[in-house]
């Protein structure tokens, strides 16, 4: 029996113990950790070859590549955890080019003392997310840092994908008159995570919306190959993402607040905390911008997919040299939707 | 998908807007000060201006706890974190407020000071319990709303015999500020929209003195945009009828006597300071609270022998005038140039309740369009 197995007990028994410096030293303990934990969950032919890289054939055409570092507190939250998030986030970044994701890589930075049982849960969740999405994790790496130099676990995932012919989606392609669509309710992820922060105590049933959006994107691109912009409003929420697009495309954007879907629980939590849902993170929603004559077609394609049943047209791009994002409020007035300075903060008064 | 905001219903808003347009006499101007930053924020966030006739205007008041704290007190907080090496617990907005030499708690944190953002005083208590070998100071700010929780925390700390917890007290009082605005500061407005949450604690009675002495209507209103509009309508009616009374739009929460229990706890722990410096208003008599001697062990000012020196605001920053209702953010030549929420020069650009931040964040297109 190996050192690790002695400590972990039998292969499938619940892992006990914690990450130690030796797990990152590159020796036998590292190999055992990879074998008994990572490879056990993430099993696929490319990873099983056990090389430092994965070799595969590529299709002709345009490829996309993206990378994303994931840090989140708490690591486990209602509706997901850092593992599923690391898979979904990168698949979505690939998909937002209209691309079909092919492969992922994952790099882990583990903090000494991190419970192996938690690591096991996280890797199992990554495996499940990657299997469900049909996008395998084909190569990876693990390092261990001393206690106090990390925050449990950091995961960096990289993804590659291929763009179907004729699709050209980019943040700088929005034109005045284009229509802005949103795939569903905003703020679910951020509020679910906030509700579990130790220093904030409020009860909510909200689950994170964390999901892989590539099958939705495939349907959308098939229906309307001329989609101009796709983007997932993650950190910074709808507000920040629309500002990015407005800047890149040099257009204004006008929103209709009443058209933006939001769940009553999310809205109530935002009221309570003095937060604006426009700036709360999402992990399973996308914004699409398309020419006006294609808007209804695209909306119908979105609503036909289970991840975008509540899709809505929420506004339009306008001619505006300031590239302002503005909104007609539910109340009938007008306001800007600006970038947020720093993190959203609950009000004091 | 259904939405829960019954108070933001557009039809109601339009109804109120129509009533205001009908009742506001075209020949006169109505200048209404909303005391609270919470109201300022609601007005901008929901675009309430757009629903008001041209002769009804809002003047933004000093009711933003982050905005009114003078630089000297923020310098004190820096001193606690850097020289005394305490764990300084503070609300998020406070971290970004510029202190002397454009330093801030956020910069101190980046340079290694142990500054932690908390959401409530309870978080600070929790940190103190978890770090028995460190001194933990809660940087307490706010009006009458945030005072009772601080008082409760001090009582808890005493009961538990927590040796490493203290409060740097900066709690301030609404009526004193209002009085000062109308006397020393020579504010010229026709009516006030009074604070909602604050009044739920102190009640509506303290405002009766103002309506009698200064003959200005005070309408206490909630923080929802419809509350603000309804309060404006009530104030306009009073002015048209020559009345100056305390009216309560926020009956769903505010009573004449407020929350007696909360006031009793506050009285047990705090006493009035003879004077306290406010940004914009200068030294205002009887306008702030300090920790009573019976709780001296938990008073960071005593524990660390803190002395406050008054420090000038940044050059060209008009926060003082803005907090007095004498100027608007756009009158400041730094507005949007040297000063934005990403890199604030004055406190009014930091908090979402600050007038400069509200103008910049929600209302900037108005200037660009003009
Ligand atoms: S814009 Fe900045 S510098 Fe000018 S008054 Fe406001 S906070 Fe002060």
TrEMBL record, chain A:
Pfam families per the UniProt record, alphabetical: AIRS (PF00586), AIRS_C (PF02769)
PurM-like C-terminal domain sequence ranges: 175-326
Database matches in InterPro entries: HypE, PurM-like_C_dom, PurM-like_C_sf, PurM-like_N, PurM-like_N_sf
Listed GO biological process terms: protein maturation
PurM-like N-terminal domain segment(s): 50-163
CDD domains: HypE (cd02197)
Family designation: Belongs to the HypE family.
PANTHER family xrefs: CARBAMOYL DEHYDRATASE HYPE, HYDROGENASE ISOENZYMES FORMATION PROTEIN HYPE
Descriptive protein name: Hydrogenase expression/formation protein HypE
Gene name tied to this protein: hypE
From TrEMBL, chain B:
InterPro entries (UniProt xref): Hyd_form_HypD (IPR002780), HypD_1 (IPR042243), HypD_2_sf (IPR042244)
Keyword tRNA processing: no
GO biological process, one term: protein maturation
Alphabetized Pfam families for the sequence: HypD
Protein name as it appears in the record: Hydrogenase maturation factor
Gene3D superfamilies the record matches: 6.10.20.100, HypD, alpha/beta domain 2
Biological classification of the source: Bacteria, Pseudomonadati, Pseudomonadota, Alphaproteobacteria, Hyphomicrobiales
GO molecular function, one term: carbon monoxide binding
NCBIfam families (UniProt xref): hypD
Origin superkingdom: Bacteria
Keyword Secreted among record annotations: no
Keyword terms, alphabetized: Iron, Metal-binding
Family under the similarity heading: Belongs to the HypD family.
């Amino acid at each position: 029996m190996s050192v690790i197995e002695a400590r972990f007990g039998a292969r499938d028994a619940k892992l006990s113990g914690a990450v130690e410096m030796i797990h990152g030293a590159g020796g036998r303990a590292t190999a055992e950790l990879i074998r008994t934990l990572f490879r056990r969950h993430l099993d696929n032919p490319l990873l099983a070859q056990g090389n430092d890289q994965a070799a595969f054939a590529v299709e002709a055409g345009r490829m996309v590549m993206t990378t994303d570092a994931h840090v989140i507190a708490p690591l486990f939250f209602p509706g997901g955890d850092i593992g599923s998030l690391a898979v979904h986030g990168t698949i979505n970044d690939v998909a937002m080019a209209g691309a079909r994701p092919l492969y992922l890589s994952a790099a882990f930075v583990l903090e000494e003392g991190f419970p192996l049982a938690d690591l096991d849960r996280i890797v199992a969740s990554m495996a499940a997310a990657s299997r469900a999405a049909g996008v395998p994790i084909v190569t990876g790496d693990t390092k261990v840092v001393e206690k106090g130099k990390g925050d449990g676990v950091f995961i960096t995932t990289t993804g590659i994908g291929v763009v179907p012919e004729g699709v050209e989606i980019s943040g700088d392609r929005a034109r005045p008159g284009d229509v802005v669509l949103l795939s569903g309710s905003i703020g679910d992820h951020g509020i679910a995570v906030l509700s579990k922060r130790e220093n904030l105590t409020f009860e909510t049933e909200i689950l994170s919306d964390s999901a892989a959006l590539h099958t939705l994107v495939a349907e959308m691109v098939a229906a309307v190959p001329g989609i101009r912009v796709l983007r997932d409003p993650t950190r910074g929420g709808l507000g920040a993402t629309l500002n990015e697009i407005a800047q890149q495309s040099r257009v204004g954007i006008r929103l209709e607040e009443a058209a933006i879907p939001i769940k009553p629980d999310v809205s109530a939590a935002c009221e309570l905390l003095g937060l604006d849902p426009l700036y709360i993170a999402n992990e399973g929603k996308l914004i699409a911008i398309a020419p006006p004559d294609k808007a209804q077609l695209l909306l119908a394609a979105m609503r036909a997919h289970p991840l975008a049943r509540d899709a809505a047209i929420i506004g339009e791009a306008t001619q505006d040299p300031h590239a302002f994002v503005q909104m007609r409020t539910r109340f009938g007035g007008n306001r800007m939707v600006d970038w947020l300075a720093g993190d959203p903060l609950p009000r004091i008064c | 998908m259904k939405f829960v905001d019954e108070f933001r219903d557009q039809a109601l808003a339009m109804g109120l807007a129509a009533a205001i347009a009908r009742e506001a006499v075209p020949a006169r101007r109505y200048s209404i000060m909303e005391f609270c930053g919470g109201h300022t924020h609601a007005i901008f966030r929901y675009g309430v201006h757009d629903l008001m006739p041209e002769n009804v205007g809002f003047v933004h008041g000093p009711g933003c706890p982050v905005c009114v704290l003078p630089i000297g007190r923020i310098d004190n907080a820096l001193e606690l974190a850097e020289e005394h090496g305490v764990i300084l617990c503070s609300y998020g907005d406070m971290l970004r407020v510029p202190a002397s030499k454009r330093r801030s708690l956020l910069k101190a944190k980046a340079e290694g000071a142990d500054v932690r953002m908390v959401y409530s005083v309870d978080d600070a208590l929790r940190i103190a319990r978890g770090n028995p070998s460190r001194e933990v100071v809660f940087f307490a700010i706010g009006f009458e709303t945030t005072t009772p929780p601080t008082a409760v925390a001090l009582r808890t700390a005493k009961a538990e015999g927590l040796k490493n917890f203290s409060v740097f007290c900066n709690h301030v009082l609404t009526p004193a500020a209002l009085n000062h605005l109308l006397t020393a500061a020579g504010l010229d407005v026709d009516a006030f929209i009074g604070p909602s949450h604050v009044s739920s604690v102190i009640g509506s009675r303290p405002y009766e003195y103002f309506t009698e002495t200064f003959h200005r209507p005070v309408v206490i209103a909630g923080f929802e945009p419809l509350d603000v509009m309804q309060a404006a309508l009530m104030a306009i009616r009073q002015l048209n009828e020559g009345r100056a009374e305390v009216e309560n739009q926020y009956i769903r929460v505010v009573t004449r006597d407020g929350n007696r229990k909360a006031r009793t706890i506050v009285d047990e722990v705090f006493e009035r300071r003879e004077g306290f410096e406010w940004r914009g208003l200068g030294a205002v008599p009887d306008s702030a609270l300090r920790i009573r001697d019976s709780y001296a062990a938990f008073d960071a000012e005593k524990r660390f022998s803190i002395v406050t020196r008054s420090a000038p605001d940044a050059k060209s920053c008009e926060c003082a005038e803005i907090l007095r209702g004498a100027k608007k953010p756009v009158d400041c030549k730094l507005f949007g140039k040297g000063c934005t929420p990403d890199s604030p020069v004055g406190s009014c650009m930091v908090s979402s309740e600050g007038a400069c931040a509200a103008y910049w964040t929600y209302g900037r297109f108005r200037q660009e369009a003009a």
